[in-house]
Amino acid sequence: MRFVPIPFLSLIVSVTTCLHAEIDSGPKVGTTVSPLKVFAATGDHAGKELDFAIERSKKPTIYIFIQHERFDRPLARLIKALEKGAIEAGNDSSLVTVFLTADEVKTKDHLPRIQMSLHFTANPLVIYPSATMSPEGWSVNTDAQLTALVVNEDKVTASFGYRSANETVAPEILTALKKTLGK
After folding, report:
1. pLDDT tens digits, residue range 154-171?
2. Domain at 23-180: CATH code
3. Concatenated DSSP letters for 94-138?
């Protein structure tokens, strides 16, 4: 029988934990959401600038913040799973994916292609014109690959920040949405 040294095992556990380690990102639970003025690249308001905090106001919403340059297939699978879960949760629940970007032109061209590929029905893809700054009042940590906020009645009910994320974190976020809805 062969034994693996304990320091080696703790390194494996440490590396695995870091892959999905939470980091502080997003406003604190209980905070009233701030205005979120963005450009809608897809969805019912495509081509318009608007405040999605007002648009979604009292409706249960999962806001996802991603730096456009860090968007990848695992995030696409996660967002698709979150959209499906939000629809299944009912109560007019939806998702809004906010892409932080320094290159609005490139992002405006890319997001409709993402929409065509993933066929979102309850997830407008919107653009915030900065890859290095959070929308004011949203406290998005740009070190996070993904920040997810569950919001209902204009209040943050759950906040998640991930250095690296994929569909395996969807249940955690969707559980928070269901708890918010009393389910």
Report:
1. 999 999 999 999 999 999
2. 3.40.30.10
3. EEEEEEE-S-HHHHHHHHHHHHHHH--SS--EEEES-SSSPPTTS
